[in-house]
């Protein structure tokens, strides 16, 4: 059964930047730079296609605490430059795309970068046509643990806990469920429960390409594969 409908929400785990850099004789952070450039291209293409919500996992908490200092410093600098360009982008303004930044970035990031991100969130908060979501200093298991803790703390005796209760307490509470989850880099696995509640009925697509090489044509291929599959929605 072929489905010609576009996925409403696509989430991407952009793996392989460092390995891409290694095979090209480059430093790890140069791979991250190429990855950031590729995100720009894919965002532009997704908006052109009319994908209503697209999410990118930028970094886990471990990425920011365990990576070598120079790589971490350069990664944060890349974030600064990328988000400054993004906020000023005609694509964001013309398409009325809302920027969401999800995770513990307020605790992990330096003041200058936090100010840039807050500015992007504030400037686009009333945009309603598209959602552009970045997961920074985000772990899915951490998200779920915090949600459960919040529910326990605020739970009233006799109150029924439903799926809606859980969703309302997640960092992703304002995002629609994921229809298509893409992971690049040739390693078909998940990491620290990325968006675990929201990918329950998602179609999965694993690409052998390292993320800097996962271009518009590869992105289109993943969507076409999604459209070929029967959408069972857990049945």
Put the structure in a nutshell.
The protein is α/β, with parallel strands linked by helices. The protein has helices at 17-23, 28-49, 61-66, 69-88, 90-95, 105-108, 111-124, 140-154, 163-168, 216-228, and strands at 9-13, 53-57, 97-102, 130-135, 180-183, 203-206. The chain is globular.
Which helices and strands occur, and which strands form pairs?
Layout: E1 9-13, H1 17-23, H2 28-49, E2 53-57, H3 61-66, H4 69-88, H5 90-95, E3 97-102, H6 105-108, H7 111-124, E4 130-135, H8 140-154, H9 163-168, E5 180-183, E6 203-206, H10 216-228
Structure explained in plain terms:
There is one protein chain. This protein is an alpha/beta fold. The protein has a single domain, classed as 3-Layer(aba) Sandwich (Undecaprenyl pyrophosphate synthetase). Helices cover 48% and strands 13% of the residues. It is built from 10 helices and 6 strands; from the N terminus they run βααβαααβααβααββα. The protein has a 6-stranded parallel β-sheet. The chain is globular.
Total helical segments: 10
CATH-derived topology: Undecaprenyl pyrophosphate synthetase
What share of residues is helical?
40-55%
Considering the protein shown, what is the CATH homologous superfamily? Answer: Decaprenyl diphosphate synthase-like
Domain count: 1
Give the CATH class. Answer: Alpha Beta
Q: What do the pLDDT scores average to?
A: 93
Biggest β-sheet: strands ordered side by side in the sheet = 3-4-2-1-5-6
Main sheet, how many strands, which sense, barrel? 6 strands, parallel
